[in-house]
User: What shape does this take?
Amino acid sequence: MRGFILNIAKAKNEDIIVTVLSSNSIAKYWRFFGARHSIIQIGNLVDFEVQASKNNFMPNMRSLSHLSFPWVFSNNHLLIWQNFIKLFEPHLQDSSEVEEFYFNLLLEVAQKWDKQNPKRLAVEAYIKLLAHEGRLYDNGFCYVCEKVLDEEVGLMRAFLPTHPHCIYASALSKQEIFELFNTQSTIHIRDENVEKLYSILLKGL
Assistant: This one.
């Protein structure tokens, strides 16, 4: 089995509990002496075997190997990746079976992470996720006061558009934001505004 490590929690001694997103599930596994192994890091793509617990407890993670990407040795790329992937565990925590979409999205983004601006990739992936879940709010009305949006908008968590004054947010071009929603691309957005979008993204999926 292979999957992305979404979270790591300390257990007894040097054992850890690892939350892994695979192609069709999100599950927790017990890893003996996991704290000793450098490949047990949030964000890593790993291949492993699952061994049933003898006492009907959490399944064990065995024969673990790291499926690496070229950018893992770049501290900046790695930090942005870990901050991004951490958002998936609380978002999917109430699920055991998940659609293949989530694993494929992370895999697609990870394969491009060193070829494009990672913050742009994160924002574009976020839009794809919102669209997949039917949560892109693009009807032209403020999410707070429900009045028609002007030429500038503010964005709440999940990129919900509002009047900037309704949430005391930075003003962004409505045309640019709605083009982002439609194209799922940030190519038309300046770096300074990508930074603002990335900061909103970090509030949660």
